[in-house]
Amino acid sequence: MRLCLALQETDREVPVGQPYILKSGSGIITSTNSVRLAQCIEWGQNMDYTLLQRKELPRDGNTYEFEGKRYGETDISFIWVDMPPGESVRLHRHAYKEIFLVQEGSATYTVGTETLEIQAGQIVIVPAGIPHKFRNSGTVPLKQVDLHLSKQIVTEWLED
Asked: What is the C-alpha to C-alpha distance for residues 70 and 11, in angstroms, rounded to an integer?
């Protein structure tokens, strides 16, 4: 499949049924003369991407860690969590925001001086520098993704 970008009009034409994007919008070519295109990109060709399997990421107990610096200087990192009931992460903080996307289960979070009861489908955003921790307070595994707005996961542990 080709995606065609029309940055300016040229004499290049695209076949009927071809998807396109224009500065002013997008659509499907309805006739060979309906738009003249500057550039077409073949999907799967000349595209730079990385495909990983979770099992390829470094593992630490109940988590898998993706650090952006290891993958083309990606500007974000994340921890993929699958934590049994009763397990926890001790108090810590980061010099950047951390965003928790709770997918399954429930947890008790401490963020600063607040205690929060969080359920699947909720998102917790912890500002930079604020101490936080969480515990799987449910009866099923806690599944969440912890987004670190940094190329590298840097943690200052505040509890032993």
From this structure: 43
Task: Report the length, in residues, of the chain.
Answer: 160
Instruction: Provide the 8-state DSSP code for 36.
Output: B
Q: DSSP secondary structure string, 100-121?
A: EEEEESEEEEEETTEEEEEETT
Strand stretches in 12-154, DSSP E? 19-22, 25-28, 39-42, 59-60, 63-66, 77-83, 88-93, 98-104, 106-111, 114-119, 123-126, 132-136, 142-148
Name, in order, each residue with C-beta under 8 angstroms of 33's C-beta and a sequence gap of 6 or more.
13
The token pair that represents 54 in the structure block: 């979770």
**Tens digit of pLDDT for each residue in 14-67?**
444 444 444 444 444 444 444 444 444 444 444 466 778 888 899 989 999 999
Dist CA 143 CA 150 (whole Å): 21
For residue 69, give the DSSP letter.
G
Sequence-distant (6+) residues with CB within 8 A of 32 are 13, 14, 15, 16
Taking alpha carbons only, the member of 74, 44, 40, 43 closest to residue 57 is 74
Task: Name beta bridge partners: 126.
Answer: 98
Q: For residues 106 and 139, is the Cβ–Cβ distance under 8 A?
A: no
